[in-house]
Amino acid sequence: MTIPGTTTYTLTVGEVAAASGAAPSAVRFYEQHGVIQAVRTSGDQRRFSADAACRIRVAKVAQRVGLTVREIADVFADLPEDPEPGDWGRIADTLVREAEERMAALRAHLEQMRSGGRLCEM
Amino acid sequence: MTIPGTTTYTLTVGEVAAASGAAPSAVRFYEQHGVIQAVRTSGDQRRFSADAACRIRVAKVAQRVGLTVREIADVFADLPEDPEPGDWGRIADTLVREAEERMAALRAHLEQMRSGGRLCEM
DNA sequence: CCTTGACTTCAACAATGGTTGAACGACGAG
DNA sequence: CTCGTCGTTCAACCATTGTTGAAGTCAAGG
Questions:
Q1: Residue B79 burial by CB count (10 A; 0-12/13-18/19+): exposed, middle or buried?
Q2: Burial (0-12, 13-18, 19+ Cβ within 10 Å), A10
Q3: Side-chain half-sphere of A39: how many Cα atoms within 13 Å?
Q4: Structural domains in chain A, sorted by start
Q5: pLDDT tens, residue by residue, A64-121
Q6: Quick one: which of B50, B116, B42 has its CA closest to B88?
Q7: Strand D positions with any atom < 7 Å from protein CB?
Q8: What pLDDT score was predicted for residue B114?
Q9: Which residues of A are less than 8 Å from B6 in CB distance?
């Protein structure tokens, strides 16, 4: 168990980029938009904690199901510093629920079309 | 049953816009990008068939699940003129399958995270 | 200490998905 | 035939999601 408030911010932009598969520019972009957090060194360089790369990987998959960077950042905003598995679980649920709702809307629309028959011919 | 090659192109941009809930500018945009088709009057005005509004409504929902306009246009490209319910059925399946795959990727990623435990703490 | 590579910011560019406005043409009701 | 509404194109602009390059700074190894 990690001691609360002991999150270590040690990773550089390049390290997070390598670990997440994103370009360094994208890592900075995600930080600017609240998807990940960083502290600054005395020399003004970003230092990330280990979950940054994970957040980015999740963000990339979430983007594929139609969530915007802002929406993803909003979901992640509920994560405490140094999140526990349970915290991630709730985030996962939120993301899946949101995606499911969109899927349901797609399905419902297509189903209505299918059953309506002439719906698309008016 | 409609006689093949008898699709009637009678709807104006404004009518399709009203029927689909999209702005007229968006209707033109979707036509430019192959989501819908139009014929031109002698006076160079667009005339759409009845399925245009339907395609747009489907496109809007599909965009919400992460499909791009290009991808949606590609899916619709398989629709014949004056499509029958069966044709729409296959389109619907394609869209749902694509969306499902993205959902599955999201789920898989989140599940891996959940079970990995320390995956996000490295 | 000094070099080198990785970091910093900032601005420009790009692609996607549109909206808005100007200037002008088409079409239908009266 | 004329009027008003709707259509046309084109260019500019907007937000989103980044990438690229310039100019300069930090940090770690020799």
A1: middle
A2: exposed
A3: 10
A4: 13-120 (1.10.1660.10)
A5: 999 999 999 999 998 887 778 788 889 999 999 999 999 999 999 998 887 765 556 6
A6: B50
A7: 6-9, 16-21, 25-27
A8: 79
A9: none
